[in-house]
Design a protein that fits this description.
Layout: E1 2-4, H1 6-13, E2 25-31, E3 36-43, E4 59-63, H2 74-83, E5 86-90, H3 106-131, E6 140-145, H4 147-158, E7 163-169, E8 183-188, H5 202-208, E9 211-215, H6 229-243
Parallel strand pairs: 1-9, 4-5, 4-6, 6-7, 7-8, 8-9
Antiparallel strand pairs: 2-3, 3-5
Length: 257
């Protein structure tokens, strides 16, 4: 596993950061089967007038960590939009959802939340594919922090249709996909550890070209807009290297050195 120094990666991959612009649009979806509201913030690429069914622009579906808002990952959503992606940041928690009970069965509770999140991602994927025709819904990127990363990994592993890659910020419970058809980037915090089987071993990383990067001196709970600038730059730089587009609007899937 490569160990990435925050300052070095931030310097190597830094993009001049403007004041946070916020999402381009927000929509309120409703999952009738689960009677569940699903708010979504959309970040359109600057190239969106040129996004057509004949030459679609890429898509990233982003899910927040437990207890965080989908609006608290602007540092990453805006950076991906600048790269040319349509980003849909998905609100995963709804009124009435049970909170984690430390006195209860935490394994079961987390697994249920990950499954619910995966179902929500699939719902948003289907809804937006019908509404936004100029985007590549056959090769989406799933991105998520913590529980959002677990939901993304679970969906990619169990229902991979239309998914090209998974990017996780320190997911800890759901196994990352082992598949030659789905590329993986996982950025690991220094103050936590993943459950057994979550991360691919060395042989699996070679076989599936998975990119697992340790971020030195980083904290799990800092991987959002409120985290330190050096960490956000390091995350953004590694994600940008992995998802940078070629002339055909296909991601490079390059692993940061």
């Amino acid at each position: 596993m490569r160990l990435i120094a925050l300052g070095a990666l931030a310097f190597a991959c830094h993009i001049q950061t403007a004041a946070a612009a916020g999402p381009s649009d927000t929509i309120a979806l409703f999952d009738k089967e689960r009677a569940r509201p699903v708010p979504v913030a959309l970040y359109f690429p600057a190239s969106h007038p040129d996004c057509t069914p004949a030459r679609p622009c890429p898509v990233a579906l982003l899910s927040p960590g437990y207890g965080n808002s989908h609006l608290e990952y602007g540092f990453l959503s805006e950076r991906l939009a600048r790269l040319g992606y349509l980003v849909a940041a998905i609100g995963q928690e709804a009124p009435g959802d049970a909170r984690l009970d430390p006195q209860g069965d935490m394994v079961r509770q987390r697994a249920e939340m990950a499954r619910r999140g995966a179902t929500t991602i699939r719902f948003v994927h289907g809804e937006l594919a019908q509404k936004l025709r100029g985007y590549d819904w056959q090769r989406v990127v799933l991105a998520g922090h913590s529980m959002g990363g677990d939901s993304s990994a679970l969906l990619a592993s169990t229902d991979p249709a239309g998914i090209a890659a998974v990017v996780t910020l320190d997911n800890r419970r759901a196994a990352l996909p082992r598949s030659s058809a789905i590329r993986v980037l996982s950025l690991r915090a220094a103050d936590t550890g993943a459950d057994p089987g979550v991360l691919p071993d060395a042989e699996e990383r070679r076989r599936y070209q998975s990119c697992i990067l340790d971020l030195a001196a980083s904290r799990h709970n800092d991987m959002y807009d409120g985290g330190p600038p050096a960490l956000k730059d390091a995350i953004g730089g590694a994600v940008e290297r992995f998802l940078r587009l070629d002339a055909a609007r296909r991601p490079a899937f390059a692993c940061a050195q």
